[in-house]
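Long-time lurker, first post.

We've been arguing in lab meeting about whether flavin mononucleotide would sit comfortably in this protein at all. Half the group thinks yes, half thinks no, and nobody has a model to point at. So I'm putting the question to the forum: if I give you the sequence and the SMILES, can you give me back a predicted structure of the complex? Inputs are below. Any interpretation is welcome too.
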Amino acid sequence: MSEARMTLPDLTPRIVVGISGASGAAYGRRILEVLRDTPIETHLVISKAGRLTISQELEVPPAEIEELADVVHANHDVGATISSGSYRTLGMIVAPCSVKSMSEIASGVTSSLLARAADVTLKERRRLVLMVRETPLHRNHLRAMADLSELGAVIAPPVPALYAHPATIEEMVDHTVGRVLDLFDIEAGFAERWPGIRSDMRSGGER
Ligand SMILES: Cc1cc2nc3c(=O)[nH]c(=O)nc-3n(C[C@H](O)[C@H](O)[C@H](O)COP(=O)(O)O)c2cc1C
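Top reply:
Settle the argument with this. Predicted structure of the protein with flavin mononucleotide, as tokens:
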């Protein structure tokens, strides 16, 4: 009779980062930069349109963004580790998330690795954060967001918080990235915590 073998579970903390073709590749880049300084292993998948927006907005080749990740997957590689629920991850952030990718994830029709990995994250009840970027939004966009939210995804559009008085785009991006990483209990160190409104502002200027 063969002996039952006990193996220790693979507890490597991993986060999947997807960069799709919405405006805001800077968010994905910053998330990878922050996670590089943590013990978390990052798995990156960039869509074809994401490659375009990286070149257009960040003015760097996508390879430069890929260098920030521990593991890089091709978007057509639906056989990659992250396409299976058996591969343990803490969850996934799509930063930014286009309405096309969001709609694919909401429908469950996942023909790319980015969408498949997000679908797996949902079905395994792991944390899925979608930084959906589009404006204005029509009914079907809003319905897809509501569906995803009901399934447990966090819809986190990259909307700047002007109360933080960002002086640069980098500060705006950092604030939003800090809030997104909060969702994974990761302290980025630059999400300024709201100290409560100053007492002299409480009246809102009313006399
Ligand atoms: C420069 C640029 C900016 C874009 N910005 C957005 C955007 O903010 N939101 C969006 O949903 N789509 C945007 N698109 C369109 C998407 O890239 C397009 O719908 C694409 O098919 C998305 O594919 P993906 O989800 O596989 O990345 C943009 C395209 C380009 C070239």
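For your lab meeting: The chain is about 35% helix and 15% strand. Residues 20-23, 47, 49-50, 52-53, 56, 98-101, 133-134 surround flavin mononucleotide (CB under 6 Å). Whichever side wins, do check it experimentally.
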